Amino acid sequence: MTSTTLWSDLALSTSLALIAMACGSSDNPSQHSGGAGAAGTGGSANMGGTSNAGGTSEISGTSTGGTTLVVGGSTTVETSMSLQPLAAGLEHTCAIVNGGVMCWGSNNHGQLGNGDNTNSPIPVQVTGLTSGATAVGAGETHSCALVNGGVQCWGDNWNGQVGNNSSDDSPVPAQVVGLASGVTAIAVGARHTCVIVDGAVLCWGAAYGNGKDSDYRVPQPIAPLTSGVAAIAAGDSLGCALISDGVKCWGDNWKGELGNNSTTISPNPVQVLGLTSGVTAIGAGRFHACAILGGSVACWGLNDYGQLGNDSATDSSVPVQVVALTSGVTAIDGGNTHTCAIVNGGAKCWGENGDGSLGNRLEVTSHVPVQVSGLTTGVTAITAGGGHSCAVTSTGIQCWGYNIHGEVGDSSNTNWDISAPVHVTGL
Question: Which of 153, 167, 380, 413 lies at a C-alpha separation of 20 to 30 Å from 276?
Answer without folding.
Answer: 380
